[in-house]
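We now fix the convention by which a protein and its fold are recorded. Think of the row as the fold of the chain written in a discrete alphabet. Here is one such record, which you should read through line by line.
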Amino acid sequence: MIQTTSPERAPALSARTPAGAYRLDLETQHWWWSDQVYAIHGFAPHEVVPTTELLLAHKHPEDRDRSVAVLDEASRTGGTFATVHRIVDTRGRERVVAVVGEGRGPSAAGPPSELVGYFVDVTDAVADRAQAAATVSIAAAAQSRSVIDQAVGVVAFVEEVDPGAAFLVLRAASNDANVPIRVLARAIVGALPTLRHDPGRVRHFLDGLLAPAHRPTVAATGA
């Protein structure tokens, strides 16, 4: 169950996880937001009057119907609920938020008179998890049978293409630079430890290595 102390007291979370409390009076449709909920949506505290229409306007279009369904269900039943969806703040930034809440009286037998709960901005946590997953995927791509296979796997993952297209990228770079494919492959695979398999650093390295303006700098030694 959601803690039933005053929603004005949001739970203590890390500095990278903004969280704020809300309350919705179901009879008047009056919303109360803590300062943090305004901030999550890109507003200064009390800059706007929070309404259901305003709230839904900031939902990501692909997640809006699901948010409406969750809100309607909670308003009817008063049960504890939780949902994770995307919003678009006033600066046009896409955020991932978790919303938890529950209904409160007048009685357990009837519909609730209000909904209370919390908004939690989990954007950074989701991004960190995606970065970790991408790092694992790049490392896995470097475990193939040959150095060329390894390089193809890395290029395929970073460029988001299939292995055949990734091989064509390597072959085109090889032709432009007039160096064997295996030399490019060794350069890519050999750089992975120093790049720590970080997707952003690997992408930057590949951009420099495979871009036409830089391909001639790849040494042909060891061909």
Remarks:
- Confidence is low (pLDDT under 50) at residues 1-14, 213-223.
- The two ends are 66 Å apart (CA to CA).
- Residues 128-217 form one domain.
- The beta strands are 19-25, 30-33, 81-88, 94-104, 114-121.
